[in-house]
Amino acid sequence: MNLLNKTATLLICLLCMHNAQAELADRSKPVNLEADSVTVDDLHKTSIYVGNVMLTQGTLILRADKIEVNENGEGFSKAVAFGNPVYFRQKRDKIDEYVEGYASRIDMDTKANIINLSGNARLKKGEDEMRGNTMTYNTASELFEAKNDPTQASKNPNAPPSRVRVIIRPKIKTDAQPAARPPLPLQSAPSLPSGTP
Fold first, then answer.
1. What CATH class has 3-150+161-167?
2. pTM > 0.90: yes or no
3. Fewest CB within a 10 Å sphere: which of 62, 149, 150, 189?
């Protein structure tokens, strides 16, 4: 990777995806999986879920055509999801905002706090968005990295070069209070004519 690409990646990470730590409470929640079919290998602690698969753990949602799950001594540790596209969503820690992602494949490693997206990857944090061929989201260090597809030109010479794209939307401050209005001057009430009930 040349210096320009490294600098661009660092700038994107700093500008676009600052403070996006995943909901920490999710780790202590049970993992729920639904699918059309499942194959479980208890000896190797692996299972394969196929057909309209949905994995949830706290605020984390992962939807795919197929998900392969690995367990360790502590339970759920890794998942590899395939789809057209695969979708994930997770709430940020202590903030009412979500990180969402789409890709052809998503690899999740809960022990390493890493989510890898590959194949037409897209990530959204609030209103900001990042697109690239592959992306990595570290849920603990709050670091996002996106890369282009260096082989795109060899696949289709007429296609424009693969690029990473980022959209950073303006933030509207919600904590600012409206300017206080000056108090209205006090006026005495008009006197009522005598004999009025």
1. mainly beta
2. no
3. 189
